[in-house]
């Protein structure tokens, strides 16, 4: 599976050239209520000669579902989309994940282009070829490996984000540093401010770290699993909080997941204590004190972990960190070790 072109320079010209070289009568744009207001106008100005057919879905993780996907498929079918049609996914991580899945399965696959509008989608969800939806409350349980035609990076869209959304995306950038590039981690931690302007140059670095890993292992048989660092605990916590009155953003859950999995790495003797303290201090300098995980939630979190798609049989498998800039995958842990990590987390942050 060849990596998609990630377009940083002259992105609007590149998308114009794409449609000049690949003319289509049917161009669909998937938006949510936010990108319809803040981002769609830019796309219309860029592609004035194309009749864009707009598909609007509701935002939010709870809508990353088969029900929403069915709405997209139905719209494509009712508007006679064929295999020469193109779907442009204009939105954040939920939208690009779902849109990529809908496109890659409709008529066994139609071309799609991702235009991520959040930091999280730019550095993680829109690049790498993973597409999918949640199922029965479990994250990304149904999906495909299919690359978009291209990924268009427009940092100007970051100006539409609030600080909480920006920091959610920053979590994935920090992860890239922790698992594969210590210098990247240090640059991010050393910034006195984290905003669209200060992060602009580091976004490309972060995407390139991910793409280098994906190129070596496109179907997640080995090395690519290190990109799941923080996501085993993180997905479980995100799923558990989704039904509460205070759901966590994906990146917020992943920060907690990275802290927990760093603690687990230390408890298993994989990570030195000094490195653990450096990691925890780095997160604290940006995010402050992390979310408390009440003791009564531990059994529920353990139950979510048992459904993680990385597991082998009944064995819980993690990607854990050896040192800043290096991670290991297929690390088997027992339920008691998982509970020990949760207890240590509560001891430090409860």
From TrEMBL:
Keyword Translocase: no
Cofactor requirement: Co(2+); Zn(2+); NAD(+)
InterPro entries per UniProt: Dehydroquinate_synthase (IPR050071), DHQ_synth_AroB (IPR016037), DHQ_synth_fam (IPR030963), DHQS/DOIS_N (IPR030960), DHQS_C (IPR056179)
Pfam families according to UniProt: DHQ_synthase, DHQS_C
Domain 3-dehydroquinate synthase N-terminal: 55-166
GO biological process: aromatic amino acid family biosynthetic process; chorismate biosynthetic process
Gene3D superfamilies the UniProt entry points to: 3.40.50.1970, Dehydroquinate synthase-like - alpha domain
Regions annotated as coiled coil: none
SUPFAM superfamilies on file: Dehydroquinate synthase-like (SSF56796)
GO cellular component: cytoplasm
Superkingdom classification of source: Bacteria
Limits of the 3-dehydroquinate synthase C-terminal domain: 169-311
EC number: 4.2.3.4
Annotated keywords: Cobalt, Lyase, Metal-binding, NAD, Nucleotide-binding, Zinc
NCBIfam families registered for this protein in UniProt: aroB
Physiological role: Catalyzes the conversion of 3-deoxy-D-arabino-heptulosonate 7-phosphate (DAHP) to dehydroquinate (DHQ).
Name under which the protein is recorded: 3-dehydroquinate synthase
Protein species of origin: Weeksella virosa (strain ATCC 43766 / DSM 16922 / JCM 21250 / CCUG 30538 / CDC 9751 / IAM 14551 / NBRC 16016 / NCTC 11634 / CL345/78)
């Amino acid at each position: 599976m060849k990596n998609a072109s990630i377009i940083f320079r002259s992105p609007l010209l590149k998308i114009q050239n794409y449609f000049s070289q690949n003319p289509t009568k049917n161009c669909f744009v998937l938006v949510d209520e936010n990108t319809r207001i803040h981002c769609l106008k830019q796309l219309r100005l860029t592609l004035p000669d194309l009749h864009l057919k707009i598909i609007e879905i509701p935002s939010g993780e709870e809508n990353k579902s088969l029900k929403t996907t069915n709405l997209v498929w139905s719209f494509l079918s009712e508007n006679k989309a064929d295999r020469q049609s193109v779907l442009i996914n204009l939105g954040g991580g939920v939208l690009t994940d779902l849109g990529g899945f809908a496109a890659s399965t409709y008529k066994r696959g139609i071309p799609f282009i991702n235009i991520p509008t959040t930091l999280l989608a730019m550095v993680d969800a829109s690049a790498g070829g993973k597409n999918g939806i949640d199922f029965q409350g479990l994250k990304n349980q149904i999906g495909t490996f299919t690359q978009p035609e291209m990924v268009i990076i427009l940092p100007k869209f970051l100006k539409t984000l609030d600080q909480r959304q920006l920091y959610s995306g920053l979590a994935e950038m920090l992860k890239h540093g922790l698992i594969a590039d210590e210098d990247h981690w240090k640059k991010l931690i050393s910034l006195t401010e984290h905003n669209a302007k200060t992060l602009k140059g580091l976004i490309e670095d972060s995407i390139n770290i991910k793409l280098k890993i994906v190129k070596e292992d496109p179907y997640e048989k080995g090395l690519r699993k290190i990109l799941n660092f923080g996501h085993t605990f993180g997905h479980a916590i995100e799923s558990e909080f989704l039904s509460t009155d205070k759901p966590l953003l994906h990146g917020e859950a992943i920060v907690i997941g990275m802290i927990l999995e760093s603690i687990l790495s230390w408890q298993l003797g994989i990570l030195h204590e000094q490195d653990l303290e450096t990691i925890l201090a780095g997160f604290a300098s940006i995010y402050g004190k992390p979310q408390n995980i009440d003791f009564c939630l531990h059994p529920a979190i353990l139950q979510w972990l048992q459904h993680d798609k990385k597991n082998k049989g009944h064995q819980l498998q993690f990607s854990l960190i050896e040192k800043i800039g290096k991670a290991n995958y297929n690390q088997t842990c027992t339920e008691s070790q998982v509970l020990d990590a949760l207890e240590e987390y509560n001891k430090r942050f409860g």
